[in-house]
Design a protein that fits this description.
- The chain has about 450 residues and is of the alpha+beta class.
- The strands form 4 sheets. Strands 2, 3, 4, 5 and 6 form a 5-stranded antiparallel sheet that branches. A 4-stranded antiparallel sheet has the order 7-8-9-10, with no helix packed on it. A 4-stranded antiparallel sheet has the order 11-12-13-14, covered by helices on one side.
- The chain has a domain of about 240 residues.
- Helices cover about 40% and strands about 25% of the residues.
């Protein structure tokens, strides 16, 4: 107990003797600490942003919730670009025959276009038939046929694909994809499947000369009984309306009953749309015929307005009728020669090699610029922080020596002197740079004026 008391006494004496030499903790200004902390946080955020941008050059599966939601937003499929699929070529395959295409008139001969269903149609239950391209190569129209196995019946829709502008006419058609088609069909058949073996199809016949109207034929029939009725239909792209030319059938039946005494309602007959008239671009030409069991009987060639008005009998000689051919389609014209394919193959290899090299160069340049931008940003942040700290210390120093309105007056005076000094420093740097450029130009002129011996 005595030794403990002696220890406490010795310690107290030492404190009394050396107390003046013990330094107290030096607490910095709280505001400065807070400003420095915020500055470091901002610098760290900039660094993370830089590293994330650098890593996102090659996206991985890791992402934030905001990034995921941004990528998950619905996209407009009309503007979506589809990369052409690349079919890998086996190592032992030297030449693969490639089809060659050319553009020809669609409605040639007039009215001969029909939908051809392949063998897989009844397995896949859908088929996109031959399309027709407008005269100005701005749109492609094609029918899509559906099969309903429950009733062995078919139905049809007619869709439109707007073709891209900045391509050649052949490339426009080759790159047309159903994903770019308009969402709703412009024409559709009845999709009732109550009648067994019934087929309904819409076949494009031709465009008008100006491409604003499309003539199609809607066929209704039975797989066991043949075609029942063909109805010409005109779609007007300007007004987005369709006209079913059913009146022309009534006019033909009325003519034969009044002039020949033949009731076509008791007969089996139909119309055969040929196309738009070459003489009158707003009129439709069609041929009517009756089935007799042997050879069809010609019921005359008729014309009607595209709205189904003013039906006229033109002639009983269809070969004398002039039909315009306006739409286009693609046909295979052969195969590309092996020599051309080989040259294209080598050329593509060189192009791909150069593209890879160019992409690497661009990526390296991108990273370099990104890093330079990041460093410049950090430098700017440090400079701004230093200016703020300098300004803060100045305010604090002035507050310690003056009071009242004198603080603001003295602060403005000191800031004005500092700005003037900085302005003089920048002016000296500018003059120095001008002298350097003048000396460089004078040296260059002296060397160019010397005449060689």
């Amino acid at each position: 107990m005595i030794y403990a008391l002696l220890g406490i006494a010795v310690a107290f004496c030492a404190f009394i003797q050396w107390g003046d030499e013990i330094t107290m903790p030096n607490f910095d200004d709280v505001n400065q600490k807070e400003a420095k902390y915020i500055h470091n946080v901002n610098k760290k955020a900039e660094k993370e942003k830089f590293e994330r941008t650098k890593l996102n050059r090659h996206p991985s599966g890791f992402m934030t919730v905001e990034e995921y939601e941004l990528l998950s937003t619905p996209k407009d499929r009309m503007s979506e670009e589809i990369e052409a699929p690349k079919i890998p070529t086996p190592a032992d395959m030297i030449y693969v025959p490639q089809p060659e295409y050319r553009i020809v008139k669609y409605n040639n001969p007039p009215g001969a276009s029909e939908i051809s269903l392949n063998k897989t149609f009844y397995e896949k239950r859908q088929q996109n038939a031959q399309g027709i391209v407008s005269p100005d190569f701005s749109r492609l129209v094609y029918p899509s046929v559906y099969y309903y196995p429950d009733s062995a019946s078919t139905a049809c829709d007619l869709f439109v694909i707007n073709l891209e502008e900045a391509k050649s006419n052949l490339h426009k058609i080759l790159t047309a994809n159903v994903i770019h088609r308009l969402a709703e069909p412009i024409l559709s058949t009845d999709k009732n499947i109550d009648n067994y073996f019934t087929f309904r199809t819409i076949t494009p016949v031709d465009f008008s000369a100006d491409g604003t109207k499309l003539l199609v034929k809607e066929k209704i029939g039975n797989s066991k009984d043949g075609i029942w009725k063909t109805t010409p239909v005109v779609y007007d792209f300007t007004n987005n309306v369709s006209y079913s030319l059913v009146e022309v059938r009534d006019a033909i039946a009325y003519y034969w009953e009044e002039n020949k005494g033949i009731n076509l309602e008791d007969k089996r007959w139909d119309v055969y749309p040929l196309g738009f008239s070459a003489d009158e671009s707003d009129r439709i030409m069609l041929n009517a015929y009756a089935f007799t069991g042997d050879k069809p009987v010609n019921l005359g060639t008729w014309s009607v307005n595209y709205k189904g008005e003013q039906t006229r009998l033109v002639t009983f000689k269809p070969e004398s009728v002039s039909i315009s051919m306006n739409g286009y389609k693609l046909v295979k014209s052969g195969v590309v020669a092996p020599s051309i394919t080989e040259r294209e193959k080598e050329q593509l290899k060189r192009i791909e090699k150069e593209n890879i090299k160019q992409k690497k160069k661009e990526d390296k340049e991108y990273v370099k610029n990104l890093e330079a931008s990041y460093k410049a940003k950090i430098k700017e942040m440090d400079k701004e922080f230093a200016e703020q700290q300098k300004d803060y210390k100045l305010r604090k120093r002035i507050q310690g020596s003056t009071s009242g309105d004198e603080i603001l007056i003295k602060y403005n005076e000191i800031k004005a002197k500092q700005e003037e000094k900085e302005k003089q420093r920048l002016e000296k740097l500018r003059q120095k740079e001008l002298r350097r450029l003048n000396n460089k130009n004078s040296t260059k002129n002296d060397s160019s004026s010397q005449i060689p011996e």
